[in-house]
Amino acid sequence: MGQLTDKGIKLAHFSDLHLSGRKDRKGLGRLDTLFSVLVENGCSHIIITGDLYNSTEPEDWASIRNLLEKKGLYSWDRVTIVPGNHDLINLEEEMRFYNVLNPDNGSRVRRLRRKLDTFCSDFREIITGDESVAGFPYIKTLDYGDVSLALVMVNTVFPWHNIDNPLGARGRADKAQLKALYDPSVKKALRNSFVIGVIHHAYRIYETGVLLDQAFDWTMELKNRKNLLAVMQHLDARLLLHGHFHRFQTYSAGGIQVVNGGSFSLNHRRYNQVTIKANGTFEQRFVDVGGGGGFVNRE
After folding, report:
1. What is the mean pLDDT of the chain?
2. Whole-model pTM above 0.90?
3. Is residue 1 part of a domain?
């Protein structure tokens, strides 16, 4: 159980580390520093919304786990991580001649499924809280005394496809995950909790009339975002956290505040902090390490 202060419980959220490998000393050193800051700032839970590395090698993932263990953070109630497209899709492999021309999309689906299963196995202690291996979607309910927090994690990475997903960066929450979250037992488990949705892909990117921006939107978009939003509304989510589009920003969609955790690789000194009060209100701000932070949102 975390600690509830007079000012509420604090969550830290950041995204898109894009480390170059397990020997990326500079990147891992910066991450080590950020973890120290989050502990010092009294953050009860840390959420990382994907793209840990620029590779899909599970051997790399262990270095992040080792850092979390060193800080005493690697536990179900202290940290949550969801995968990004860079974690699950080996774009170089998918775009090889023999894969591009392969009409069997089932093989692409199986490759992604195997990598997602490996991710869930390697991070099983912070997904299930024990040695069992689960998958997506999954939920966590965390009791902080006067505040009950519920996190709803959905995988939004879907397979590379030469037409529908040529850069491997489009997102989609598959129907099976959304159907599972509509099960009455899920809403019952989340009752009386402050609910936060956690995904990788951005709900909103540019959304402008500029053709170049529209083309970029298409390559990065969350395809069935309205379906995902409907599920979050059904579960009475107050916040939706994501990464993927490398901007620190906050906006509203369907009555839910959405927060983009930006990119650690571009700005390792900034993170999203959410403070949840005992009376059910919350405050969201982007905190600059060594500074006072900027824009503050309250509800």
Report:
1. 91
2. yes
3. no
Task: Write out pLDDT tens, residues 38-61.
Answer: 999 999 999 999 999 998 889 999
Average pLDDT over residues 276-284: 95
HSE toward the beta carbon, residue 160, CA cutoff 13 A: 24
Q: Does residue 297 contact residue 280 with C-beta atoms inside 8 Å?
A: no
Q: How far is CA 175 from the centre of its chain?
A: 19
| CATH code of the domain covering residue 221 | 3.60.21.10
Task: Report the distance separating Cα 152 and Cα 187, nearest Å.
Answer: 11
Q: How far is CA 257 from the centre of its chain?
A: 15
Give the structural domain span for 82: 9-298
Q: Find out whether 237 and 257 touch, Cβ atoms under 8 Å.
A: no
Round to whole Å and give the CA distance between 117 and 110.
Answer: 10
In a domain, 182, yes or no: yes
In a domain, 174, yes or no: yes
- How many domains in the chain? 1
Asked if residue 92 belongs to a domain, the reply is yes
Q: What does the block give as tokens for 211?
A: 């053709």
Tens digits of residue pLDDT in 84-140: 999 999 988 776 755 666 667 788 899 999 999 999 999 999 998 877 878 999 999
